[in-house]
What we know:
By secondary structure, the protein is α/β, with parallel strands linked by helices. It has a single domain (6-214), classed as Alpha-Beta Complex (Spore Coat Polysaccharide Biosynthesis Protein SpsA, Chain A), CATH 3.90.550. It contains eight helices and seven strands, in the order βααββαβαββααβαα. A hairpin with a 5-residue loop joins strand 5 (130-134) and strand 6. Helix 7 crosses helix 8 (207-218). The radius of gyration is 16 Å and the shape is globular. It starts with 5 loop residues before the first strand and ends with a helix. Mean pLDDT is 94; it is low at 1-5.
Amino acid sequence: MMISKGSIAIAIFVKTPGLSPIKTRLAKTIGQVAAESVYRLSVKAIKETVIRVDADSYFAVAEQEGLRDPLWHGLECLHTGPGCLGQRQHHIYQRLLLRYQQVILIGSDSPQLTVDRLQQAIEALKSEQFAVGPARDGGYYLFAGRRPLSQAFWTNLIYSRGDTCDNLLAALPTKAALLAPLTDLDTVDDVAQLHRELTALGKALTPQQQAVISWIDNRD
């Protein structure tokens, strides 16, 4: 697949409902149907945000057979390739760096992500080689860079731990610019904090972010 040459690329890492387990820790508490519902809302909110940035945006889809799923309508889809999360991040990051000066990787768990936050990452890369958005659980919701990294950098990290972001920062070849932390929606304990971070956006809330708030307000 040809990717047009540009300055900035944003890749949203996603899994396709029905093809991969979705929000498994959250689903253990609220059920799979509800977990998939808020996941879809979160994806739509993040998409609504990234398309407002002057960048080429993509869905990085975990499954080859999921590339044509209607949920990914509106953005070009890239297959992450097989393997662990580290291998898939490496594949997308390196692939896009061949065509873009800056590459931003984000997940699908932080619907409160804003255009301003993405612009902060872009601005940071004018002086730094990397920028990272730490998640409150110890992971990261955003990784931005303009320098290649080895596959070993990505695969040597242990993900979904309280020290994942710290270890990522320590492994980088240069110091990264840090963005303000955000909450990843991984468990039911994250719901209240996510609600606070969304409502704090006030008039800057997008319609899809408001839909996430409504889901939280109306959930059983």
